[in-house]
C-alpha cells in the first residue's frame, strides 16, 4: 500500500497585484498599516524590478511543482501544498487544504536554507499550531544549509561568475566574493540564534569548494525599524571595499533561493547603482529558483524527515 504524505512548502509570499501591496505590507508589519510614504516607497521598488512585478509568486509555484515531481519517484506518495508567510495561500490555508484531502501526516519545509527563530522559526510555529489543531502529525526540516549538493551547486555558480570576470580581463584573485543574507535585528545574537553561524558555515564551505580566498560575509535588506539590525550592510561594505581599491565584486546572496524583490531591487538596482558610482564592476550569481539540484536537496531532506516520522 502506498502511504500518502503531505508536504507543506513554505515561502515568504508576495502581493498579488499593486493594489495588494498595502495589505501585504500591513501583514508584514503585524497588522500596522504603513504610512503613505512607506507604501509609495515599497510600491516603487516593486515597479522598478525586472522579471515581472512580483516574480516570487511564479518562482515559488514552479519550485513547489518541481519538488512534487521530484519527490514522487519512490514508494511514498507525496502531495505538496504551498503555505506563504505574508500572502495567500497563507501557511494556515496550506494546512487546511491538507485536511480537506484527508492528509494525516506531513512534513514542513521552508524555501530558505538557514534557521533563525525570527525567520524559519516563525513559519514552523504557525504551521505546527495549525497542524496540531487539525490533528495532522507534522515534522519539520529546520535547515539544510550544509547539504553537500547545495554547497556544490552554489560553488559552481560562484565559479561560473568568476570565469565571466576572467573572460572580460579581470584577474580572478582580484575579485572579492561577498556572501550575503537578509539582515535580522541584532538581538538574535543575545538569544543564541544559529542564523549568523549557519550563514558563515555555508559561506566558508562554498569558498573552500570554489577555491576562493578573497571573500567576506555581509548583510542586506535590513528592515526599516528603529532597533539595530545586523551589519555591516552591503552598501557600506561596497564603500569600504572601494576605499581599499577593490574593483571587482561578486555578490552571492546565499540566504535566498529565488529571484525576488530583495535580490532584484536591493542587489541588482540599489547595490549595482552604488557600484557604478564607485567605479566597481559588480556581478551576482544566478538564483537557484527551480534548479534540479536545489529540488534534489529539498527532496532529500524531506524524504529523510518522512522516514523519521513516528
Ligand atoms: O519579492 C517579494 O515580494 C518578497 C521579497 C522578500 C523576501 C524576504 C525574505 C526575508 N525577510 C526576512 C526578514 C524580515 C524582517 C522584516 C522584513 C520586512 C520585509 C518587507 C518586505 C520584505 N521583507 Fe523580509 N523579505 C521580503 C520582503 N523581512 C517588502 C517590509 C519592508 C522592508 O522592510 O523592506 C521586518 C518586519 C518583521 O519584523 O517581520 C525581520 C528574512 C527573510 C529570508 C528568509 C525567508 O525567505 O523567509 C529573514 C524573500
From TrEMBL:
It comes from the Bacteria. InterPro entries: Ferrochelatase, Ferrochelatase_AS, Ferrochelatase_C, Ferrochelatase_N. Its EC number is 4.99.1.9. It comes from Paenibacillus tritici. It is found in: Cytoplasm. The lineage of its organism: Bacteria, Bacillati, Bacillota, Bacilli, Bacillales. Pathway: Porphyrin-containing compound metabolism; protoheme biosynthesis. This is Coproporphyrin III ferrochelatase. It catalyses: Fe-coproporphyrin III + 2 H(+) = coproporphyrin III + Fe(2+). GO terms for molecular function: lyase activity. Fe-coproporphyrin III binds at residues 12, 29, 45-46, 123. CDD domains: Ferrochelatase_C, Ferrochelatase_N. Belongs to the ferrochelatase family. Keywords: Cytoplasm, Heme biosynthesis, Iron, Lyase, Metal-binding, Porphyrin biosynthesis. The gene is cpfC. Involved in coproporphyrin-dependent heme b biosynthesis. Catalyzes the insertion of ferrous iron into coproporphyrin III to form Fe-coproporphyrin III. Its main location: cytoplasm. Fe(2+) binds at residues 182, 262.
